[in-house]
Specification:
The chain is built from four helices and no strands. The chain has a domain of 90 residues.
């Protein structure tokens, strides 16, 4: 049974931890007609923009980090549920599962609170700086 648990946990963590990296990765394709460009052109977006601002790059890094945190939370939740369901009346294993679940939820709350505080602080700084030339209004 232990061998199955290790296999299941390694299989789940590998695929769940690599999925956000693949989704946020670079354009896949050969030449100028990659998959992302083709889909963007079909949707009507301007895909001829080559430069990205520092804020966009930082935003992408934060988005990838948050998706990894969400994936880790999901993996810990599934692992704790698996431990709980396979406890077979063992109160020590149930306590271990509830402890993992509590710590995962607390970690998720801390990360989401930090993200929301940063988001609103940066939004306020952007709003107080005034409108950007060429932009309608002050905040996107």
């Amino acid at each position: 049974m232990k061998r199955f648990q290790y296999f299941f946990l390694s299989f789940l963590s590998f695929f769940l931890l690599t999925a956000p990296l693949l989704a946020a990765g670079p354009d896949i394709g050969i030449g100028s007609g990659g998959i992302t460009k083709t889909i963007g052109d079909g949707a009507g977006y301007n895909t001829n923009v080559d430069d990205t601002a520092l804020s966009q790059t930082v935003g992408r890094v934060i988005r990838v980090a948050l998706s990894l945190v969400g994936t880790i939370f999901l993996a810990l939740t599934v692992y704790a549920g698996f431990l709980w369901m396979t406890a077979s009346g063992n109160s020590e294993q149930v306590e271990k599962a509830t402890g993992i679940l509590k710590m995962a939820i607390i970690g998720l709350i801390i990360v989401m609170a930090a993200y929301s505080i940063t988001y609103f602080a940066l939004l306020y700084i952007k709003w107080s700086a005034g409108p950007i030339p060429g932009q309608v209004g002050g905040v996107e």
